[in-house]
Here is the input.
Amino acid sequence: MYPFIRLAYGVLKQRKQPPIGLTETMETQHICWPWDIDIWMELNNGRSLSLYDLARIPLAMRTPLWKALRKEGWLMTMAGVTVRWRRRVRMFDKFTIRSRGLCWDDKFIYIEQSMWKTNGECASHVLYRTAVTDRNGIVAPERVCAAMNMPAESPPIPDWVAAWISAEAVRPWPPMQE
Here is the structure.
């Protein structure tokens, strides 16, 4: 089940924080609860994506994006993700999630997030490709930036992000056609 209570708590906690820019880093604090673990007694990989979601929504709320979404009647959807897990998060471990908008292209906004253990080790890192949508489909980031009263020019797209974008462009869809 989706952690709605944790989401509400996170939203309430962040809504009193000062606004930040789309590419500024925001930190949220979390705990790995017993219902977050898998049979190996560590944070379940699927649940980790839900926890990243719990940090991404307050990020949107603290940036100009949230007001633009509400004003225009737009929605956000995830259009892809790449994940790198490196350290285990065990039951009752506390950790910090760092989140920020990284860059954008002609269709998507790329959001980077990482999970940090209290000992300073990075447990995992994700790159999300997100789209802002309306009833007609994807809203161009240029238009989204205009609604946020910010320049439409993206920060430079890092090489590793550009490589992922290129790889996704040649990935077959629909998949597994025989």
